[in-house]
Amino acid sequence: xxxxxxxxxxxxxxxxxxxxxxxxxxxxxxxxxxxxxxxxxxxxxxxxxxxxxxxxxxxxxxxxxxxxxxxxxxxxxxxxxxxxxxxxxxxxxxxxxxxxxxxxxxxxxxxxxxxxxxxxxxxxxxxxxxxxxxxxxxxxxxxxxxxxxxxxxxxxxxxxxxxxxxxxxxxxxxxxxxxxxxxxxxxxxxxxxxxxxxxxxxxxxxxxxxxxxxxxxxxxxxxxxxxxxxxxxxxxxxxxxxxxxxxxxxxxxxxxxxxxxxxxxxxxxxxxxxxxxxxxxxxxxxxxxxxxxxxxxxxxxxxxxxxxxxxxxxxxxxxxxxxxxxxxxxxxxxxxxxxxxxxxxxxxxxxxxxxxxxxxxxxxxxxxxxxxxxxxxxxxxxxxxxxxxxxxxxxxxxxxxxxxxx
Length: 406
What we know:
Layout lengths: L11 H4 L9 E15 L2 E14 L3 E5 L6 H8 L7 E6 L2 E7 H13 L2 H43 L2 H19 L7 E4 L13 H12 L4 H14 L16 H13 L5 E5 L7 H18 L2 E6 L2 H7 L2 E6 L2 E7 H6 L4 H8 L6 H6 L7 H4 L8 E6 L2 E5 L1 H10 L3
Parallel strand pairs: 3-8, 3-9, 6-7, 7-8
Antiparallel strand pairs: 1-2, 1-4, 4-5, 9-10, 10-12, 11-12
Helix pairs in contact: 3-4, 4-5, 6-7, 6-8, 7-8
């Protein structure tokens, strides 16, 4: 494979063939970079050139050690941070756009004196700015048009009281559609259930807050929606009047899940939702998420440390190390044929419930300086076998293919 310039800030993922075609892709992340300033002229590259997609209805697991950029990736996707570079597409619409990659290409074009390329990158920058700023407005317009198309023939065909009822429904739904936001279809479950819940608000107020912000004013409908999601997460209506400190950790996490699903999202970003819970409670929460996934048709991006849980819950897994996606494939393939040295190190750290096997288990230590030689050629994300991506260079790719007998 020909060597590519190592430039994670721009179109590495697209060139590597990371993305699946002709599939119902809900979320697409292209070369996401999230840098934080840590002093004059200094940056910390928390996420550096990460690319992946998530198909509608699947669970995508994101694993790695603490500080590798998993949570930052999730928070950047949901726009808690403004990304430095790259793009995020949700339901085919760009919701996040970083400008640094485009500005770098513009600078190169200016230096080369290529007027055509300069004009191209200027247009790309303007488009990125527009998409980032107006994604919610564009989505609201689409929703309003859909409501009009839905009700127009019904109202025209109706008469008398039926027509008045439909007109009233149309007016209310159109009002909500005009203020709808595409980000309402993407919600997050946070790691610490108590820190993410306001201690001065009741459970009803916490869960209903999204509906109120959304513009729903009918108290009866709000109460019905709150009681419905409480039932879905295994709580009862009596819990609605209580405060967060009156619940156990597992119950608090259920409240967090209820808050996330009340707006009927299509994508849930679960940021280590079980790491602060006891093992028995972890199983309950995982089973709850599995049930909700099937019942509500949810797509889940599951961020976690526990590889055993991720294997059980996820369809595909991405492994992150120091801001980079180093391996990505299906859950079964990752455990059957791990290729990247860091992935092998993570898998070797999984404890087993068998004393004899555990006694003989050998930990694999990952040292990137000795495991890789990138002095001659830098790595890129490459597809070794269909659907199995590894960050490697030519020499490593040949080695991995030999390991698989290709």
